[in-house]
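Sharing a chain and its predicted structure for anyone who wants a worked example. Both blocks are below, sequence first, tokens second.
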Amino acid sequence: MHDLDVWLFKLINLRLANPVLDQIMLTASALGTGSAQAAICFLILFYGWLRDRANIRIAAYTGLAACIGSVFVVQILKHLWQRPRPLAILFEARAVGKALFWNSFPSGHTANAFAVAVVLGTLLPKLRFFLFPLAVLIAISRIYVGAHYPSDVIGGAALGVILGLACVGLRNVRTFRHKQQGFTLCAYAYAVLASVCLILFCWRLGAVPLIGLDEGLYAECAREMLVRSNWIVPTVNNQPFFDKPPLAYWLMAASIKVFGVNSLAARLPSCLAALGLVSLTHMLGAKMFGRKTGWMSAMILATSLITVGLARLAILDMLFALTIAAALSVFILTRVGKLPKTAYLISWASAGLAALVKGPVGPILIALVILIYEVLTRHRGRVSSDAAIKLPLVLVGVLIFAAVAVPWYAVVQFETNGAFLREFIIHQNLQRALGQDFHHNMPIFFYVLVYLIGFFPWSVFLPLAWVRFVRRKPQDALSEVPLFAAVWLLTVVGFYSLLRSKLPAYIYPSFPAAALLVGRLWTECLESDRNDAILASLQRYALVAVMLAFLTGGLLIGGLRLLPKPIPRLETALVPMVVSLVAGTTACFLALLKRQVKQAIAGLVFGVTVFLLAAIVLGLPIAAATIGEPAVRLAHQIRSNVLRKEPVFSYRLPSSFASLPFYSQRVITPVKTVRDLTNLSEGMQRFVVVTEARNAKLLPQSRTAISRWGQYVLYRFERVSLR
């Protein structure tokens, strides 16, 4: 059987080789990715919304479910089989495109294509004559490009057919009705929300290496915690690393323990935190205003540009936002009587966790939001004795907060002889807040631009939501919720605006509040029988969104000519991103003109989702090729050519190489001057220095080049004095 498999592979991969076929098969292979198949389903879904055809929408939802199921089942089977790909076994095998070597069975592209083809071909018979030939072509292309054996493709096709038939069998999922609110919410809407979250947050999460300084440092800190079994004192390159408290490092270390030393493991805690934050936003909106508002708010948060970015990075901001949102959400739900009074204690525990993510700024933000809200509600005369927090409950909450946060701070202070609090509190918090971190100093209006871009296109509608809900005179306790969301938003943004050191992600804890306000605006328009005033306002703001989308597209495309150094293939990512954003906002505006609110929401969600998918599938690999991939390649050279006992130094490498110790799985001491190198290498008989070739002339001549990758070189020094 194996001989037949190899013979068929060589027939298709070698004997049919042709330059024209190479391009055709590469294109066909790209159409088999999960993102491409999901895009087909989204296109059909968008068409179904425009035509108001329920059967088309249900078919698209079912196709998405089949595609997502295929992706996850295939990855599980690949991990279980671990079959080497043809390029790892057959010397004469030909690679067309990217060379792949491991986890061959089954073919994921083929499974995706057949799963979607079975669903859409069954529920929308007119498409079967297009989708099934496309699925067959994708299956053949995987053999042609050298990625799979024929048996892998057959297995993938069989798996796709089974999953597709299973999803078709479940297509009659009944809707559930909420009589209190007078609308029916289809279960498929939640399938769309889950699909969007899983695709935008999880899809290809580990496909690109760690990018930037923060990802490299945090991931390496987590790896060293695991290696040294020291969970108290964070270190990077065996030196104390007092940048942040350890909760995020603990979670990353646990993920690395399970999934290995790779970017997927480092980013997984942020991804899971994003899923948790979207779920929490849905819960808060649903309990306050109904499931429809909960769904809309969650979708708005999930499709915000900065949400997707933070969910896919191994940094602390998404986890920090989750702890802040958990504390504030439980507080307001308890405050308006949706949860028992004892639930206040959860807020105290969440505040303790926030202190373990980013330090005292977490509890400070939570306390400020609650205090300002309480002052405003007392001024409005809306506080009842039942809503007041009793002193014994406060004391218990303080004890819970202390039990969560204080032990680690006390132990690390003892272990470091007081160095941690001096560095962390004085430098990392106070000095940065006062502007002594000159790299991050920004004007006070900086976060207005962050909101406009990071929350786009939903940021356009935020002023309208503010005018409609926050300024409205409250009638009962629940009508105070928009005020709480506004206080939440303004307190976080105002607090960080007053500090001189600013980064875009600092204000992300306010985004759930913004999503609740905008989500309530859209659902009120959708539910109201007399929504002429809201609709007219939405039309005007949607037109602004269209104009901003065109302006953004022009700046992105035109900016390519202004780059000092052209980035290869960057336009291949920017063009579909711009087109999808413009198309989505335009479709929203046109639908609102026709008084089709559902179609407007669908158009906007679809446009933003495709924009983000294009950034993930096309943009991230291009960025990684220049600022992430070099560190991975260089780490491979270190692991292949340097002995474990040899000390390694990095000399004047850029910050994009912060992940070099993580991928090398060893300590790499950074040095900036030859004097530093001389002092640190004193007494060493041999050591290795990695640097750019242009910096080699600054090093002593007694060196031997042992490896080179691009412009970076490994030099070995043996028994020489550098003085």
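Comments welcome. The first helix runs from residue 2 to 15.
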